[in-house]
Design a protein that fits this description.
This protein is of the alpha/beta class. It folds into 2 domains: 6-133, Dioxygenase LigAB, LigA subunit (Protocatechuate 4,5-dioxygenase, Chain A, Orthogonal Bundle), CATH 1.10.700; 144-426, Protocatechuate 4,5-dioxygenase, Chain B (3-Layer(aba) Sandwich). The protein has 20 helices and 10 strands. It has helices at residues 18-23, 25-33, 37-45, 47-52, 58-65, 69-74, 79-88, 93-98, 105-113, 126-133, 155-162, 172-176, 179-187, 239-251, 266-276, 301-316, 346-358, 360-363, 368-375, 385-390, and strands at residues 144-151, 192-197, 212-215, 219-220, 235-236, 257-259, 285-291, 323-329, 399-412, 415-426. The strands form 2 sheets. It has an 8-stranded mixed beta sheet with strand order 6-3-7-2-8-1-10-9, sandwiched between helices. Helix 14 crosses helix 16. It is globular. Mean pLDDT is 95; it is low at 431-436. The structure holds 3,4-dihydroxybenzoic acid (DHB) and fe (iii) ion. 3,4-dihydroxybenzoic acid binds at residues 153-156, 200, 330, 334, 336, 378, 413-415.
Length: 436
């Protein structure tokens, strides 16, 4: 299954998608730098010197020095960003658009005054379209989801590791619960972890409250949450797989926010520490996926579950033979605020673990109110686990899940620690009837 990018066939235009965005990231960010009068002045004083201070390819710099917007677009530039550059040089939008058409400014103006360019002769060539829609050969190989990991992400667990307290009587039982997990990860190391977590007022403050954020950058640094950044490596991602997932999920009507730059906080780093231990570099790539559970309304369990199902389709349509794990983090019961702080509901948590394995569809219908009432205000983090569960192949009958490990412990700081590992076994496709 390859993704539909038929829009690339429309003649005489460039559709700015995640692929183009990655190609033109620094070029477009350079354009944004021209939004202050001071920078515009510096640019105009010495264009070459200003451009050289940016990590741009020579082709990108040359396109701008040549005033060649077609070349700049081919190099990943986007017209709204390039317009900042054009404005700096005193070009109007009409001058910029006209400069790409191969006719003079006067001719372009006259064409627009005459009603604009006709769509006739500017549609996709019929033969080209038919060839594109001819049955594509299925990809010879594709990515597979090998398992799901569910775990709490309590910051105090990270602090216990960072300050060598894991052997203390308070912490020992918590870390013992993850001994199996570390060995399992060593044996089943994926190429990529798709890590679902929530940012806790670290990368996102109240100026921007996106519901779902997919990290599409190449690397993400560890956040400073007030105590200094944790002494753990930042993550390296797989931006090509992330762009593919963005394309597939958004085409499936999940309106994601894409982040090329953000820091990642304990919600992401603590699960990595728990599963991989104290390492100088994480042993695989990590794609971060943030879910808003800080300010209501937060997404429902059902929406998260549906997103997980679409995520499996996205990952398994990627035509490289990667092994991918999906992790859901946060929870279990915890209440961090108010006179109700410290609330723990063992019975509810354990029923959640049971249902996550055996009745995920029913569990996905549990309303927010129940999470808050039964598992505490911050227990709502558990909706994120439904994304990882939704990505398992038993849900559409194409495979089975196997529980490899289950662990529950109270307390770690203010929470109950819950942890589950599911292996995902996708059955080989049966040959179609009559085919031997
Ligand atoms: C705690 C737990 C969390 O999940 C979190 O994000 C912050 C604090 C705690 O129990 O201390
Ligand atoms: Fe949290």
């Amino acid at each position: 299954m390859s993704l539909d990018k038929t829009y690339k066939l429309v003649p005489g235009t460039t559709v700015f998608d995640a692929e183009q965005s990655a190609r033109g990231y620094h070029l477009n960010q350079f354009c944004m730098s021209l939004m202050t009068a001071e920078n515009r002045e510096r640019y105009l004083a010495d264009e070459r010197a200003y451009l050289d201070a940016w990590p741009l390819r020579e082709e990108q710099k040359q396109a701008l020095l040549d005033r060649d917007l077609n070349a700049a677009m081919a190099e990943g530039g986007n017209i709204y960003f390039l317009a900042k550059w054009g404005a700096t040089l005193g070009f109007s939008f009409q001058q910029m658009a006209g400069s790409m058409t191969g006719i003079t400014e006067e001719e372009y103006r006259a064409m627009m005054a005459g009603g604009g360019r006709s769509v006739e002769g500017n549609r996709i060539d019929h033969a080209v379209l038919e060839a594109a829609h001819a049955d594509p050969a299925p990809p010879a190989e594709h990515a597979v989801i090998t398992g799901a990991v569910f775990t709490s992400h309590v910051p105090a667990i990270g602090a216990a590791m960072d300050h060598a307290k894991t052997e203390e009587p308070y912490w020992r039982p918590v870390f013992e619960g993850y001994e199996f997990s570390r060995a399992w990860e060593e044996e089943n190391l994926p190429d990529v972890v798709f890590l679902v977590y929530n940012d806790h007022a670290s990368a996102f403050d109240l100026s921007l409250i996106p519901t779902f954020v997919l990290g599409t950058g190449a690397a993400f640094a560890t956040a400073d949450e007030g105590y200094g950044p944790r002494p753990v490596p930042g993550i390296e991602s797989d931006p090509e797989l992330a762009a593919h997932i963005a394309h597939s999920l958004i085409r499936d009507d999940f309106d994601l926010t894409l982040a090329n730059e953000m820091t990642v906080d304990h919600g992401l780093t603590v699960p990595l520490s728990l599963m991989f231990g104290d390492v100088g570099k994480w042993p695989c790539k990590v794609i971060p996926f943030h879910v808003n559970v800080v300010q209501y309304p937060v997404p429902s369990g059902a929406r998260c579950f549906a997103l997980g199902r679409a995520l499996r389709k996205a990952i398994e349509s990627y035509d490289r033979p990667l092994k991918v794990q999906v992790w859901g983090t946060g929870g279990m019961s915890h209440q961090l605020q108010g006179p109700r702080a410290g609330l723990i509901n063992r019975a509810w948590d354990n029923a959640f673990l049971d249902r996550l394995v055996e009745d995920p569809v029913g569990l996905s219908r549990v309303p927010h109110l129940e999470y808050v009432e039964e598992a505490g205000s911050e227990g709502i983090e558990l909706v994120m686990w439904l994304i990882a569960r939704g990505a398992m192949s038993d849900l559409d009958g194409s495979g089975d899940v196997e529980v490899k490990h289950r662990f529950y412990h109270v307390p770690a700081s203010n929470t109950a620690v819950g942890h589950l590992i599911l292996e995902n076994h996708t059955r080989a496709q049966e040959p179609a009837e009559g085919v031997k």
